[in-house]
Design a protein that fits this description.
Helix 5 runs parallel beside helix 6. About 35% of the residues lie in helices and about 30% in strands. The protein has one domain: 3-Layer(aba) Sandwich (Rossmann fold), CATH 3.40.50. By secondary structure, it is an alpha/beta fold. A hairpin with a 2-residue loop joins strand 4 and strand 5. Strands 6-9-10-3-11-12 form a six-stranded mixed sheet, sandwiched between helices. Bound molecules: adenosine-5'-diphosphate and magnesium ion (MG). The site of adenosine-5'-diphosphate has 13 residues, from strand 2 and helix 1. Adenosine-5'-diphosphate binds next to strand 2 and helix 1.
């Protein structure tokens, strides 16, 4: 079992403090949801966990299995088992989904074994097709240029396929539901549910409760003003759907 622990994290971007004492502990096998209004720092949290260089950690730490990862570059964090499905995946014309994924697999394996010669194309294809079948994806998908002309749903499925192939210990889904129609949302959620298990922890970041109808969280946290201000179980998400965030704001104001 793996643990991801975020301790009293303060993060600034371009001199503006966004995360202000963020704390979270999660274990593999668990699904945590972070909900919160726009602009509250949810994406900042996701990028900071992955080690995006634009975000300056002014204090606090992030530990993976008790090891502080703050000095690791983004690629090292990926190899250590962290994965982020982006809110806005970038397109890479000229690079197929298959090539992109094979490069990613090789990078991960070479980090473990510098002598590693790279996965053979037949071996990789077999692995990719097996995962695509598992996620009920059309094989033709593999030959398309990454995210180039992909619909919102296809972009998110490409992210889920990448997750299925890299097998992270913790996956962060940053508003994976944004821009998806209900069918695409269901397909992506089914993919996540298929991969969910004792070896994978999932952090679902969302503005709306909708995706949590498909991916049931064990823990729900409300994020506001750069930190978690309320935690509960799946019922909390339903409560927020019905009552919005105002009551959380009022509670915060009252505590000041
Ligand atoms: P959320 O994902 O919860 O909507 P974000 O983490 O994207 O929130 O943004 C939090 C705050 O940080 C916002 O006020 C946003 O304007 C600011 N911010 C995010 N990225 C940048 C950036 N690259 N430069 C300046 N400000 C940013
Ligand atoms: Mg965001």
């Amino acid at each position: 079992m793996a643990t991801l622990k975020i301790n009293n994290l303060f993060v600034s971007i371009e001199g503006k403090e966004i995360l202000k004492g963020f704390n979270l502990e999660m274990k593999s096998g668990e699904v945590h949801a972070i909900m919160g209004p726009n602009g509250t720092g949810k994406s900042t949290l996701a990028y900071t966990i992955m080690g995006h260089p634009s975000y300056t950690v002014t204090s606090g730490s992030i530990e993976l299995d008790g090891t502080n990862i703050m000095d690791m570059e983004a690629d090292e964090r990926s190899r250590a088992g962290l994965f982020l499905a982006f809110q806005y995946p970038v397109s890479i014309p000229g690079v197929t989904v298959a090539n992109y994924l094979r490069t990613a697999v090789n990078a991960h394996r070479k980090a473990v074994d510098p002598q590693y010669k790279g996965i053979s194309i037949p071996e990789f294809r077999k692995m990719m097709i097996e995962r695509m079948d598992y996620l009920k994806m059309d094989h033709a998908f593999a030959g398309r240029y990454l995210n180039d002309g992909f619909s919102g749903g296809e972009k998110k499925r490409a992210e889920i396929l990448q997750m299925a192939i890299l097998k992270p210990r913790f996956a962060i889904l940053d508003e994976t539901d944004s821009g998806l129609d209900i069918d695409a949302l269901r397909i992506v959620s089914e993919g996540v549910n298929a991969l969910k298990g004792p070896d994978l922890g999932v952090l679902v970041i969302t503005h709306y409760q909708r995706i949590l109808n498909y991916i049931t969280p064990d823990h729900v946290h409300v994020m506001m003003e750069g930190r978690i201000v309320e935690s509960g179980d799946a019922h909390l998400a339903l409560h927020l759907e019905e009552h919005g965030y105002d009551w959380v704001r009022e509670k915060l104001e009252a505590a000041r």
